[in-house]
Automatic annotation (TrEMBL):
Homodimer. GO terms for biological process: anthranilate metabolic process; L-kynurenine catabolic process; L-tryptophan catabolic process to kynurenine; NAD+ biosynthetic process; quinolinate biosynthetic process. This is Kynureninase. Catalyzes the cleavage of L-kynurenine (L-Kyn) and L-3-hydroxykynurenine (L-3OHKyn) into anthranilic acid (AA) and 3-hydroxyanthranilic acid (3-OHAA), respectively. It is an enzyme of class 3 (hydrolase). The modification N6-(pyridoxal phosphate)lysine is found at residue 248. HAMAP family: Kynureninase. Pathway: Cofactor biosynthesis; NAD(+) biosynthesis; quinolinate from L-kynurenine: step 2/3; Amino-acid degradation; L-kynurenine degradation; L-alanine and anthranilate from L-kynurenine: step 1/1. Its cofactor is pyridoxal 5'-phosphate. The gene is kynU. It catalyses: L-kynurenine + H2O = anthranilate + L-alanine + H(+); 3-hydroxy-L-kynurenine + H2O = 3-hydroxyanthranilate + L-alanine + H(+).
Amino acid sequence: MEFQNTREFAQQLDEQDELYKYRDEFFFPSINGKNVIYFTGNSLGLQPKRTKAYVDEVMSDWARLAVEGHFYADKPWWDYHERFAIPLSGIVGAKPSEITVMNTLTVNLHLMMVSFYRPTAKKYKIICEEKAFPSDQYMFQSQAKFHSQHLGINPSEIIVEIKRREGEHNIRLEDVLAKIEEVGDEVALVLIGGVNYYTGQVFDMKTITAAAHKTGAYVGWDLAHAAGNVELKLNEWGVDFACWCSYKYMNSGPGNASGCFVHEKHHHDTELPRFAGWWGHNKERRFKMEPNFEAVQGADGWQISNLPILSLAPYLASVEMFAEVGMTKLIKKRNLLTAYLEFILHEIDKEIDGTEFEIITPQNQEERACQLSVYLHGQGRSLFDYLMKNGVITDWREPNVIRLAPAPFYCSFEDMYEFGQILKAGISK
């Protein structure tokens, strides 16, 4: 498609967009009396309007039924989480039995490492990406420190980072594969973010998973920026486990519950260690209060405590919206919307002397999703501040990168055009 940097062209794209109606399903903040252009769905998605009804339903059931809501609410609380299995399995490419929701992202990654990071004196290394999100880095450091005491190994020897080549912003696939092969039999776990939070690079999860498995390692993925954003086939790829937060592209609300995937090949492994709790015990026998743990078959067997229903209600509202639309349509719009944003950035760059926007997200569509990370050479924090004051909510990362994530559920093509005009005015002022 030959793009044009005009409002009329952008409006034509919106008229042709079969998902445009979903824009009215969300609440937008307003600045200067106008709805904002919202580019931070990679941090916190907008609130769906239908969310309130789901929360109000739980509040009403609690008021009417109190403890009896566990069994007699319209959506009984004791199996409320099971409603996520089918819609989430469609989002991440899994079987329903491989899906559960519980806790928050880093908590779940730690819990998954109980099962899938089992270091020995000869097989103990964790391969991860350089400059992963800080929470992942801290998790790796604390796990390494904990296990090093038992292995008699320096913690610094456990973590192996795959680095970018000098002068490059993204990690090459061949370098990931080479590092896995180099570390070889010493690799116990490969755990990488499916989409790098800073650059927006999408990793080839299928190829990396297969390479790691050849060394006998377990493979996990942090899908914080991938779930609800990219096509995933976790079951088909043979991924051992994955976790994601729900409040970014899946719009479930700040700090909300995390989703987990555990591949079916592990469901019947009674030797696999896990930290157990009452809610992971055999559902049919749970209320017999038996002294010995017997895991629910499937990912639900990794649950520990009964679930925070008031937190799950907004998440359920969102996943049911995803089920209505499907990832295929979302990804189709995502690709066109991101490409149009890229075009707008290049057009504004050409129109203003002395500016240079360097998009550090890969150009290859297979290696990117919603997000474009842009180096604003020659610009500083003042431009970001101008954008925020003039109705563009975006994200600043040091030293001078803005992250732009046009989520297809609620961002429009006219938003992309209007952003370009505001950006141009901010540079020219």
